[in-house]
Design brief:
- There is one protein chain.
- The protein has a domain of about 120 residues: Roll (Nucleotide Exchange Factor Grpe, Chain A, domain 2).
- The protein has 5 helices and 8 strands.
- It has a 3-stranded antiparallel beta sheet with strand order 3-6-7. A 3-stranded mixed beta sheet has the order 4-8-5, with no helix packed on it.
- A hairpin with a 6-residue loop joins strand 1 and strand 2.
């Protein structure tokens, strides 16, 4: 064939690239490993891959070395687990102790506030008790006025009781040095009355087991 018989056609670079792209578009990417050429698009390939423990040179580790390595790793994991568990238990204990301290602080603040309130009211309450204690004079007061004052006093006492503040004013009960302050001893011929409260000179007050003020009392003393 002569040169003049050859017909040349012009093709753009885009047409040429497209032609080569079409030729390779249906081919799957491959990894050339000689006879064991692997297609990267094979379905389930990643699921079939088995990871083998090996040395830095790529040699497969003997079973005993793999077992030793796994034991060492397990030992490290167990140690870390114990450290995390110990840290968590310590943090939990610190939190519980902190909660107890906060609850105790709140309780102390509440008790102190109630005690302060009671102490502020004590002078007025003592005045009521002194007025009521002189029965002869108190009975001479106008009845309507007397009933009104007694009602106001009962409101005071109700408010104290509702706040957890109790009176120490019982008679006939055994003398308790933590609740009572003895003023004088009253002789008695009845042995059962020995060291019991004969009368209350000044009412005492307490919050639970905390005594704000002990009651001042006279006690019976048995003498044969």
């Amino acid at each position: 064939m002569k040169d003049e018989d050859i017909i040349y056609t012009e093709s753009s670079s885009d047409e040429i690239e497209g032609e080569f792209a079409n030729k390779d578009s249906n081919k799957e990417p491959i990894v050339d490993q000689g006879e064991n050429t692997i297609s990267l698009d094979d379905e389930g390939l990643s699921d079939d891959v088995t990871y083998v423990e090996s040395t830095e040179d790529g040699d497969v580790l003997p079973t005993k070395d793999i077992t030793k390595k796994l034991r060492e790793e397990l030992k490290v994991v167990r140690k870390e687990k114990e450290e995390y568990l110990t840290g968590w238990q310590r943090a939990k204990a610190d939190y519980v102790n902190l909660q107890k301290e906060l609850d105790s602080s709140r309780l102390n603040i509440s008790v102190i506030a109630k005690e302060k309130m009671a102490r502020n009211l004590m002078p007025a309450l003592d005045s009521f008790d002194m007025a009521f204690g002189n029965k002869e004079s108190w009975e001479k007061v106008d009845k309507n006025w007397r009933v009104g004052v007694e009602y106001i006093y009962s409101q005071f006492i109700t408010g104290l009781v509702d706040s957890g503040i109790e009176k120490i004013d019982q008679t006939g009960v055994p003398f308790d040095p933590s609740l009572h302050h003895s003023i004088s001893a009253i002789p008695t011929e009845t042995e059962a009355e020995d060291h019991t409260i004969e009368s209350v000179i000044q009412v005492g007050y307490k919050i639970g087991e905390r005594v704000i003020r002990p009651a001042r009392v006279n006690i019976y003393e048995f003498k044969k």
